[in-house]
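Reviewer comment 2.1 asked that we show a complete input and output for one of the modelled complexes. We chose the LLP case, as it is the one discussed in the main text.
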Amino acid sequence: MRPVQRSLLPDHATVEPDGSMAIGGCRIDDLAAEFGTPLFVYDEAQLRARCRAAADTFGAGRAIYATKAFLCRAMARIAYDEGMLLDVASGGELAVALAADVPADACVMHGNNKSFDELRTGITAGVRRIVVDSFDELDRLDVLHGEGVRTPGGASPSVLLRITPGVHAHTHEFIATGQDDSKFGFNLGNGDALRAVGRATDSPSVDLVGLHCHIGSNVFEASSFAKAAEVMAGFAVPLDLPELVLGGGLGVAYVDGEEAPTISQWGSVLLDACTALGVRSAVSVEPGRAIAAAAAITVYTVGTVKRIPDVRTYVAVDGGMSDNPRPVLYGSGYETFLTRAVDAERPLVARVVGKHCESGDVLAFEASLPDDVVVGDLLAMPVTGAYGHSMGSNYNKIARPPVVFVADGQSRLVVRRETVDDLLATDVG
Ligand code: LLP
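Response of the prediction step:
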């Protein structure tokens, strides 16, 4: 198998004269020596550029970073500084955004089952919009209104209604069945969406300013978004509300040979479609993966190489399903390479596994690696910047890895490695 495809590496990845990898002018072996492994390394300039591309493509206040993809204070700050708003899907995500000094007015609050506390906090903090997901949530907002809960300006919260448009985009395809079977939003097909619009319009508890939909995640065909826009426009145009959010979902290339639209290609398809459909509302989007995924690699140290003749080779690293759970959760594929030999051929087919106590703990099912992989090598997985660290766990009481941002020859630790004290911090018995 050929060397790892350069386009899967962060924008500012380079190969040093000795064949090893650097990002943003920082050698990965130096970073591993300083911060240990496993380690998430993000190309900060790339994060900034992707946020800026989204803000430039969709316009000020219309590109909303889905923080669930990857969130820490430094990331919240970057997204905001580069012109994006922040989509927060829980009280916790809102708290991190606010702790990064992102104004509440730059935060859009999501969640299919927001608690009273989350709603109260969001309203009193003054979040920009609450995306209302259900009739039960409208009930809760009525109760809070009755209790006198108001925005800092003394008003009822501005809300969008999350509509389930009856279409669902899958990677590489667009299907029109099964989509009404969703825990999210007000279904268009059975009239719930229209009933919700009627109720929100008549309610003093909320100020209805628009509609929202999200058709799926890791969608590769820009045309799928245009098709969803068509369905939404059919509902939204006659209502003529000021805002329409068409969600996130832009796919990224994870493995050799995959190709995804750029943010600006996505933008032109979506915005052209909306114009053609007569949408007069301000159109916003909420990309997460497309901002963060390709900016990071995860660096591991190889701890064992087990060759079972005629069966398989297992390469075990010092992390696993607790730091990159996507392979286990979704069967997702990732590339692997050795940071000391970025351009080396990778003829060895091996299963890259973690250190957790179960056979399912797999990072790459059919990984390609150089034949001379040995214990102590630094093994990297590119395109792990989204839904890796953010979905990490402490399974087996393994401390979560640190996150380092690199740019212009400088590295900065933005999330430190957890310690045993962190693992015990919530035990009270
Ligand atoms: N907006 C809403 C309302 C969402 O539900 C999501 C993702 C996004 C925006 C951002 O979507 P993105 O641009 O990142 O695709 N853990 C899964 C992905 C779950 C996405 C859930 N919602 C994964 O690792 O593939």
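Residues 280 and 394 are 47 Å apart (CA to CA). We note this here for comparison with the apo prediction described in Section 3.2.
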